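Revision sheet: C-alpha cells.
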Amino acid sequence: MRITLIKCLGLLGSSMLCAAAAQAESNPTSMGIQHALILSIDGAHALDIANYVRTNPQSAFAQLGAMGVNYTNASLPLGDFYPGVLSLVTGGTPNSTGVWYDGGFDRALSAAGSDCTKVGAEFMYDENIDINVSQIDGGGGINPAKLPRDPHKGCAPVYPHDFVRVNTIFDIAKAAGKRTAWSDKHWTCDIVTGHGGKGVDEFYVREVGIGAVAKDIKRTTQVDDARVQAIINQIVGYDHARAQHTGVPAIFGMTLQALAVQQRVPEGGYTDADGTPGQLILAALKHADQSLGKIMAELKSQNLLDSTLVILTSVHGDSPINRSFSRKMDEDMIPDMIGEELLAVAVQDTEALLWLKDQSQTSKVAAVLSKAQNRSKAGINEVLFGEALKLQYNDPKQDSRMPDIIVKPLVGVFYAAKTSNKIAEHGGFYTEDVNVPLILANPHLKAAVIKVPVPTTSVAPTVLQLLGLDPNALEAVKMEKTPILPGLL
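Predicted:
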C-alpha cells in the first residue's frame, strides 16, 4: 500500500517518515508486482476491444479494463508479427532490433546451405524452417539447414534468436534469477528468447500450420486453447504440460491466432466502416474473451492477481476494416516494374519492402515507382527512400538489413498472389495495421483511459520497472531512448 502525501502530513512532522512516503508514492515496485503476463490477440485493433466492451459490459475484456490503464492510441513500429512482438519484449523498433519482417535480405549474411563464399542473401524466418511444419509440434524444433549463414562466425547457421541484435526482457529477468516462459505459433518465434536463445526457460510451440491448414479455424482454435491451457498450468506453478512443478514465471505470455484468420477469409471480416464484427470475427473475439476469463479466474484462484501485471495487446492489426476499401494487388506487379536485374528481394503485404542488388540505383527505381501510371496501377500512396527514409530509419548503406525503398500503398491495398482469396492483410504502417489494444491491468492500478500516442516499445521497460528491474538494461531502450508508459502511478 502506498502512503499518500496527505497521510505524510499527518505523521507528526517526521521527515524520515515523509521521505519514506514520498519514495513509496513514486516507486512503482511498491505495487508488489512479481509477475508480468503478456497476452497478444493477433489481428486485434484497439477498435475491436472497444466495440466488444461496449456491447458486452460484463465481459472479461471489460473487467480487465476496469482495473487497468487503457492506452487507446498505442501504436506498433510496423504492423507485422516480428517487429510487433519484438517491440513488446525488447523496447525497440527495427532500427535497433534489425528485424523488419519474417523475410527479407541481409547484405552481411550468406544463403542457407551455402559455404559463405558469397555474401548477401535472402532469408526467411517463417513456419517453413520447422523440422516438420505439418506436425502439431512443428517436428520439435528448427531445421538448421534452412537458416541463413554468418560468414563472420564460421558460416554458422543464424537462428532467429541470434538474428535479433539486442537483448530482451527475458534476458534481464533470467539474469536476475527469475523464471521465464513463452508460448507461440511457430518455432521461428524463438526470436523472442533472447541472446543465445537462453532467456526463456520454457518455450512452448503449437504449430498453426501452413496453407489450408493455417486457415482451418477449428484447428487454429484448438492450438490457441492449448497455449491458454499452458498459461493456466504455469499460473498454477507447473510447466506447460503440468508435468513438473517449476514455479510461476516472472515473465510469461502467449499469442492467440484465431481472430487474424477470421479477418482475412472472404466469409469473415467486418460488416461496416465502424468495425462492427461479422459473425466469424465476433465468434473469435468471444472465444478470446472466454480465454482471458479463464486465465483471470486462475490468477484469482491462486491468489496471484494482486501480484501480476496483465498486459493485453496485439502484435499486429489487419486491414482494411472497411471491406469496400479492400483491393488485392498482384504481388508480382511491383517486382515486374523494377525488373529482376535490379531487385534483390521484395517483401510485400500491406507494404512493399524493397532491397536492391545495386544501391546506387535507388533513385532510379524510386522514380519508376513514382510515375503516375505505376502509382495508379499498383495502388501506391508513398515511395519512401533516400534522405526521407533516413529521417525515420537507418541508412541502408550502413545497416545491412535496412530496405532501400519502402512503398506504402493506399489504405485498403495489399499485395498477394493471384490465387489468394484474402480480403485483408497486415504488415504496414497505417492505423489499422498498427493501432492495437494496450491495457495494463492490476488491482492496485487506478482505472484510466490515456489517449495520447504511446509506442508499444514502452511495454518492455515498463514491465522491467514494475518488476523492480532496470529498464536501461535493455539495449534497445538505451539506443532509442524508449520511455516508460505514462499514467501508472
